[in-house]
Every structure is written in C-alpha cells, then in structure tokens.
Amino acid sequence: MKLSKIALRNINRNKRRSLLSGSAIAVAAASIIFLFALLDGMETDLADNIQTFYTGTIRIIHSDFEKNKKINPMHLTVKDPDKIIEITKRINPDIQVSERISFPARIYIGSRYFNAMGMGVRFPDEIGFQKIEDVIVEGRFPETGREVLLGARLADKMGVKTGDKITALSATAGRGSNAMTFTVTGLAVFPLLEFTNSVFMIPLETGQDFLKMKTDVKELLLKYKASSDQDAAALIDRLRNETEKNGIKNIDISYWKDINDTYSMIAMAEKMYMIMAFFFLLLGCSVIINTTMMVIYERTKEIGMMKALGMKNSDVVKLFFLESFYIGIAASAAGVIFGVIISQILHHTGINFQNMMEDMDFEMSTVLYPVVTLTSVVTIFLYSVIIASISTFIPTLRATGINTVDALKHN
Amino acid sequence: MADNSFLKSIIIILLISVSASLYAETAEDIIKIMDEKQTFETLESTGSIISRDRFGTKQSDFTSISRGKSEFLIEFTSLEERGQKILRTPDELYLFYPDSEEIIRLQGAALRQSMLGSDISYEDMTEGTDTLSRYDVKLNGDEDVEGAGCYVIEMTAKKKNVPYPRQVVWVDKNIYIPRKTDYYSRSGKLLKTMELKDYKKDGEKIILTSMIISDKLKKNSTTELNISSYRINPPVHPATFTLEELTW
C-alpha cells in the first residue's frame, strides 16, 4: 500500500482530530490573509493620500523651504509656475498638475479664534487631482473671489454654515501679516480626518492676493502613474535639466517617497508583520504538533507493528509528514479562501477607523478598504503548508525512536 | 557781584541735582520718573521698523498717535502693509486689515506674536508707560552702559498677563531713560534685548527715537525701530482711539 494512501486513510480515521489540526491552520491562514489585505489596503491608501493631498508623485518647492519650514517661511515661494507647468507638460502631457499655497492660519469669529490650515488651489484642476467634487457634502466649491470651502468638522467646531463669513489671519510672503474675510460656499468631508478637522480651501488667485504672493505658488504637485521608482527618478532628472536650461532657479524637485516618512514606515512594518505572521502560524502549528504527538502515542502499537513488518524509520517519518502535508494543504486552502472572502467583503464595505483616529494626525483615510493581492494569497498559502508540514518533524522523531518490541507491548 | 551770582547759580544747580538724586533713590521713583518722561498728553510720530535676519532686510513704515499712558493707534504706510492698523486701548489690542470685514481682537499668547515678522511683538509696540501698575521693581545697584551711569532695576510682573515675567532695565541716572533692557521668561530664559541708540529731548520730555530689539529665540535677528519725526501735544479727535474710527 502506498504511503500517501495510508496517510489519507489515517486522516479519515479520526476526522474530528484532523479537523481540529486543520482548523488551527485555517484560522491562522485566514487571519494572516486579512492582516495582509488590511496592510496592503493601508499602503495603497497612504500612497494615494500622500500623493493627492501632500506631495504629489513629484513635488516642486523653493530650494530653501524644507530647511526653514519650522519658521513658516511664506516668502520662499516657487516663482513662474506657468513656465514650470509648460516644461512639465512638454515632457509628459499626461501629468496632472496642482498649484497650491498651503499656509497655517487663525480663523477669527467674533472674539473666538481657531487654528486652521489654509490652502489656495485651482478648483477646476483639483477635480481631476483630488476629485474635489466627491468630498463636498454641502454647497459648492468656491469659484472666484473671497469664497471658501470648509472642512465640515472645522465648520462644526466654529459653528459656521454655508453662507456665513469667516476671517482668516496669516503670515504673508512679504513677511508681514494679513487678514481677509471669506464667504463659506461649501462644506467638505475629506478622506483624511486632519483635513476635515482643520482645512479651508480658497481659490488660488485669492490666496495669492491674501498672502501677497503675486503669481507665485508655495508648491507644485505633479501626479502621474510612475511605473517604477527608477522611472520617477528619470523624470525628475529630466525636469531638473529642463528647468535649469530655462533659467528657473531655487527650486527643489523631489519624489514623494523621499519626502514622506510614513509610507516607508508602513513598508518597514510590512516586513515586521511577515515575521509576526511566521510566529502566528507557528502558534497554529502547535495544535498540529500537539495532535501528532497524541496520535503517535495512540498509535505506538501500530507503529511497532509496521516497523515489525519491515517499515523503515524514514517511511514512518514520511507517513506522518504526508498526513500533516495533506491537512496543511486542505486547511491552508480553506483558510486562504475564507480570508479572501472576508477581505473582499470588507474591500467593498470598508472598515471605519474614525473613532480610533480621532486625535491622530495621520495621512491615512478614516475608512480603509482591505486589498487582496495574488502575491499575498500565494505566499501565505505556501507559507502555511510548508510550516504545517515541517512542524510534524518534531513529534515524528519520537516515533522513529520507539523500540519495536516495546511498541508491540504498548496498550 | 557778577562772580557772586555765577557762584549762586552753580550752588542752586548743584542743590537741585543733589535733591533730585536723593529723591530718585528708590526703584519706584526712578521708574515713575522714567515713565513720566515718556508720557505725553498726545504724541504724533512717523517712523519705520527695519528687520534684519538671514533672509534679508525688510522695512515697514508707520505713523502713530498716542494719548496718555495706554492709548495708541498705529497705521502702516509702506506698500506691503498699507492701511493696516493697530489700536491699543487701556484694556484691549485690536488689529484692522483693509481686506478684512472683521476687526481682530488680540488676546493671550497672540499678543506676543511677532509684528510684521520683526523682533517686536504687538504687545511690545503698544506697551504703555504705566510700568508700576504691572511690575514690582527693585534697585539692584548701578552699572555703566556705553559710558552712561545707570541704575540697574529688576522688574517682576505682578500679574500673569504680562508678556515678560521679568525684566532688567538700565535707567540712565541723569536723564531717566532706559539705556538697555533685558526681557526674561518665567524660567529665567533671556527672550529679548533692547538697546537704546538715540533719543530726543523736548523740555522735560524725552522721545526714544532709535532702538534695537533682538529676539533671542531667533537666530541672527534684529529689529531697528526708528522715529523720524514727531509732534508733541497735537490736537487729537476724541474718537481716534475707538473701534468705529479704526475702520475709517
């Protein structure tokens, strides 16, 4: 009789025990699939948010801004943005460009004041760049002049509604200060809680007038689907050369992964989670080790008999290995399928982390959508099967050490 | 006879000087005289604030009107800030910006914010001359500042709502003006320094016409405050220091 047949027969001999061993692996595999789907979802979400709201895929700012950013150097602006946009579009017409002026401000309403983050943007450009029309929950986005779109929670905090007026005070590019009154035309709920809590958006030209910036902007964000980091680096090199050739000075062109630390932290966390997954599976395998040890104890007489009939120690090991291997395959497959189903359901419904993120300034959306990738499915399936199979070696070694005569006497 | 009258004059001057110096022996008296010399029924002046730091130099011009110890109105006239006004009343400080429909009342920590990016805060610029109502003062001996004999007076805030919990001021023994002031935090950290560069005497009154203020929390940053012209006791409309007038 072939060993594989004996292994399958043995699995069926005690279905409950086989189910118990398998379920531990299945639960571990399903949990890891979900954990990795959540991490992948988090990574995708972070990458998208950082590029949409903070840095673009490529960011152009004044070359001295970064080293002085602690003192809010509003005067360190990007000059002649139209020329830079023209150069960018010449290199790749599909690149989306967002001209922005972000500035810390204080909003005054009567004798009360609120800290906020202002943002001057070209609203028509932001339709493509950050899908601004999707975040508006009341009213409309500002069209021109002294109109403002408020983060809904900021508006709520200030007791302001559409049609009301607010006055913002900020430092200017002339290194002075200015205050301007705006009419609220709409309220927005951004994917980022930080934005909904503190951001107000005004038309770019109004921002330039308010902050005495003439036609300058604080930053130019370029967004496009870079096929790889090398592809982005090549584009940045080309942009640097072309802008320099055209006499544009004092600008810094950077790739988003070099600017923002959060994404690299998540990427690093992913490696940590791989190690955690390994231990998680080992924990699941402890059930297999345990049940295999019980099986070996129960089947000591049977092992003795097989050995008396001429079965080698290596065949005994193979037999138990095959039993675990089959259980591992079935359980891992079931666990992975279950994990994928759960993750896919949550991918459509989303998981709301708003309450958890209430006091956090984090570039992650309040609602996360787990993303299942083929790589993680295949990796976790193989990972589970291999660990489940290998884990039987420890108790099986005990079986090989059993004396045939003693085993036959065992009750 | 002529020699006698000359001698008499010398003696009278000496007696007045001695009695004046005897009179000004306590720190309270010194500060009171210093404040009185800088307090005007009304004063109109024009001047400029020149800020220098690692980013370059910036000049903002202004005109100001003050009445008594604690009413000031400053209007900026340079292109960048034209029309912006600061009004100080005995109890409040207001900002008016031409682009704003609302008058901003500054309070608390906002009073300590830098004015136009300079080393001077809104509170510094409009600080009144009623020092003794806000500070306990103590005479800590005397020192020379650039050749001028000075009283060294330590001032400790009576209330928490003052911008600087502790100040050390060097008051000129002869003309009772602050030659130098160091401003400290509650923990004893040096926050700012002020050095007087020039002044003008007008009868008993003294106008500080040039001083350098340095914010010690900023790197390589100084601000020069210059008064280019002034008029003592000009007629001032009674509504000048009101919110209604501010928006005009």
Give keywords:
heterodimer, A: 411 residues, alpha+beta, 6-stranded mixed β-barrel, two-stranded antiparallel ribbon, elongated, B: 248 residues, 13-stranded antiparallel β-sheet, 5 helices, 13 strands, globular
Strand content of chain A: 15-25%
**What topology, given as strand order, has the largest sheet of chain A?**
2-3-8-5-7-6
Query: Which regions of chain B are unreliable across 5 or more consecutive residues at pLDDT < 50?
Result: 14-24
Determine the oligomeric state from the structure: heterodimer
Total helices of chain B: the number is 5
| Shape verdict of chain A | elongated
- Helical percentage of chain B: 10-25%
Task: Name the biggest interface.
Answer: A-B, 22 and 20 residues
Main β-sheet of chain B: number of strands, strand sense, barrel status? 13 strands, antiparallel
The chain-level structural class of chain A is alpha+beta
Quick synopsis:
The complex is a heterodimer of chains A (411) and B (248). Chain A is an alpha+beta fold and 411 residues long.
How would you sum up this structure, described in words?
The complex is a heterodimer of chains A (411) and B (248). Chain A has 411 residues and is of the alpha+beta class. Helices cover 57% and strands 18% of the residues of chain A. In chain A, a hairpin with a 2-residue loop joins strand 2 (96-109) and strand 3 (112-121). Chain B has helices spanning 2-23, 27-37, 122-126, 131-134, 243-246, and strands at residues 40-53, 56-68, 71-76, 85-88, 93-96, 104-106, 135-145, 148-157, 166-172, 178-184, 190-202, 205-215, 222-232. Chain B has a 13-stranded antiparallel sheet. In chain B, a hairpin with a 4-residue loop joins strand 4 and strand 5 (93-96). Chain B is globular and about 65 Å long. Chains A and B meet through strand 6 and strand 7 of A and loops of B.
